[in-house]
Write a structure and sequence with these properties.
- This is AsnC family transcriptional regulator.
- One of its GO terms (cellular component) is cytosol.
- The protein is of the alpha+beta class.
- It folds into two domains: about 40 residues, Winged helix-like DNA-binding domain superfamily/Winged helix DNA-binding domain (Arc Repressor Mutant, subunit A, Orthogonal Bundle), CATH 1.10.10.10; about 80 residues, Alpha-Beta Plaits, CATH 3.30.70.920.
- It is about 35% helix and about 20% strand.
- It has a four-stranded antiparallel sheet with strand order 2-3-1-4.
- The protein is elongated.
- The chain starts with a helix and ends in a 13-residue tail after the last strand.
């Protein structure tokens, strides 16, 4: 499916999605047009889902990064997911294996905002069975996507 050139392109894009076609072309000994065609093919095949940036939440005033695990009653799962998807403080929302578990990552300015979020957006949800939360102390590595 993927040859070594495709793997190299994916690896480099994962490291820096802003790398130019020209720079990639030099690394893989192809023309810029050939590299662009390969990237377009990887996008069309769904192998590359998106190009994104990582924004420093802390530098934008979001000092608290917290992870929540919610166990919900199955009958309320879809409604809770719909409500949380619309919440601007929710950065990540995953449905996990186990007894109807939702994993949420939120970004807030301070502990008072986190407390407000918990009361206004979490504790009031119908069908909530259990809530656990953890506050991030330090990020040692942050990598989205797959290692090639």
């Amino acid at each position: 499916m993927l040859d070594p050139i495709d793997n190299h392109i994916l690896m480099r894009l994962a490291q820096n999605s802003r790398i130019s076609y020209t720079d990639l072309a030099k690394e893989v000994s192809l023309s810029s047009v050939a590299v662009k065609d390969r990237i377009d093919r990887l996008v069309n095949q769904g192998i590359i889902e998106q190009f994104s940036i990582v924004i420093s939440a802390e530098k934008l005033g979001k000092k608290i990064s917290a992870y929540l695990e919610l166990e919900v009653e199955p009958a309320h799962l879809n409604h809770i997911v719909d409500v949380l998807k619309e919440n601007e403080r929710v950065a990540v929302l995953y449905e996990m294996t186990g007894p109807c578990i939702l994993h949420i990552h939120i970004l807030v300015e301070n502990l008072e905002e986190m407390e407000r979020f918990m009361h206004e957006s979490i504790y009031c949800l119908d069908g909530l069975v259990r809530v656990e939360n953890q506050i991030l102390l330090k990020r040692h590595k942050n990598q989205d996507g797959l290692n090639i």
